[in-house]
Specification:
By secondary structure, the chain is mainly α. It has 8 helices and no strands.
């Protein structure tokens, strides 16, 4: 019996690509996300690709990120960037809006929101 992964439920690479693109478009467009946007390079091409590859594997699909870059080691890779409560919350809000904007169903969004929340909080390296 096949158990559907979040990757399957999302709609695979096509929908993950749409999610990542919407996420970074929002980050670029909405001043509410300025704090987290300024932690990224001006050109978001590589950021988009890395997040896409990571999310494919993180949701249960192909391990594209690991194959190209090795183990994610998220906390270590994010350590050079000052990530506090504000940056965490901006990232989470932006991702939540992106999931809503592309039409992910509510049940899946809630599941992913909880997982993103835990991961984003783990990335914090500033007290506030």
């Amino acid at each position: 019996m096949h158990v559907a992964t979040s990757y399957d439920r999302i709609g695979g690479e096509t929908v993950i690509r749409r999610l990542v693109d919407r996420f970074y478009d929002l980050m670029d467009e909405d001043p509410d996300y300025y704090g987290v946007r300024k932690l990224h390079p001006q050109d978001l091409t590589h950021s988009r690709e890395k997040l896409f590859m990571f999310l494919c594997g993180w949701t249960g699909g192909p391990s594209l990120y690991t194959k190209k870059y090795g183990e994610p080691r998220l906390r270590t890779r994010h350590m050079p960037f000052p990530i506090g409560v504000s940056e965490r919350d901006q990232w989470l809000s932006c991702m939540s809006r992106a999931m809503a904007d592309i039409g992910l169903d509510d049940e899946l969004r809630k599941k992913l929101d909880m997982a993103f929340d835990q991961t984003a909080d783990f990335m914090r390296n500033q007290p506030e």
